[in-house]
Amino acid sequence: MLLELAWPRHPRSIPRSQRWPANLGLILLNSLCVKLLFPITTLALASWVKHQQWGLFNQLQVSAWLLVPVCVVLLDLAIYWQHRLFHALPWLWRVHRMHHVDPDYDVSLGLRFHPIEIVLSMLIKLGLIILVGVPVLAVFLFEVVLNAMAMFNHSNLKLPLKLDALLRKLVVTPDMHRVHHSQHYQEHNANYGFNLAVWDRFFRTYVAQPKDGHDKLKFGLSHWPNAKDNRQLKGLLSLPFRSAKK
Predict the structure, then answer these.
(1) φ, ψ (nearest 5 deg) of residue 70
(2) What is the pLDDT of residues 163-217, one digit of tens each?
(3) Helix (H) or strand (E) holding 242
(4) Predicted confidence (pLDDT) per residue in 93-127, tens digit
């Protein structure tokens, strides 16, 4: 947040004072939903799975130094495909599009997801922990890295071009993920990764640069009115249940 304030990539179209109350309100609401709806956390479940010897890796003799990084990578791959699924299936897209209607792009967008998506994502992670037998340390590292990277690559941070080119060989940079929030259909169906950059290249969903260039890149969904949807919590929460207005 401080870095993007010092070195912004794009001028803001809506002041923080008009966007952040709703965005931060969603973050608080999502945290409450997870606490109230799930009696067990991902870390507690991973510990229980290990104790019960459930999951694939608990049936194999794999050393911890290898198992932990492998599981972190597998969880990252799962998040990549989860993201693609939320774009591909119409009923999931209705939920996920709340993340895309914002006509601005900054660090608060990295945690701006509908509570329904947060719940579904939590169920997917819990299921993977049980099926794979993910160790506690891997779950902890993945959660920390995922949240940190989501805020980093959603930030309105201007990185030197050479540094961006170097970093995106390994991880998703702000310039790389910014393409995913373009109004162009082909671009917002690309660059799905949140952490490792390899998945978009491997599965051929990588777009290096926006066709209009970063200076003229327009964020959001062109067919969605944004006044109430982006500035009021009520509008954001009801968005999956309403139809877009052309």
Answers:
(1) -60, -45
(2) 999 999 999 999 999 999 999 999 999 999 999 999 999 999 999 999 999 999 9
(3) none
(4) 999 999 999 889 999 999 899 999 999 999 999 99
Residue by residue, DSSP assigns 73-129 as: HHHHHHHHHHHHHHHHSHHHHHHHGGGT--SS-SGGGGG---HHHHHHHHHHHHHHI
Q: Name the 3-class secondary structure at 172.
A: coil
Task: Specify the residue for token string 């791959």.
Answer: 77
Cβ atoms of residues 229 and 223 within 8 Å:
no
Give the C-alpha separation, 170 to 142, whole Å: 16
Instruction: Report H helices in the chain.
Output: 2-6, 16-37, 42-52, 64-88, 90-96, 115-128, 136-153, 161-167, 174-178, 185-188, 198-202, 233-238
Considering only CA atoms, which of 136, 146, 131 is closest in space to residue 47? 136
Strand partners, 219: 182
Do residues 101 and 230 lie in contact, with contact meaning Cβ atoms separated by under 8 Å? Answer: yes
Contact 184, 210 (CB under 8 A): yes
CB 186 within 8 A of CB 143: no
φ, ψ at 219 (rounded to 5°): -95, 160
Distance between CA atoms of residues 57 and 134, nearest Å: 7
The alpha carbon dihedral of 128, 130, 136, 137 has a sign of: negative
| Token pair listed for 174 | 């702000």
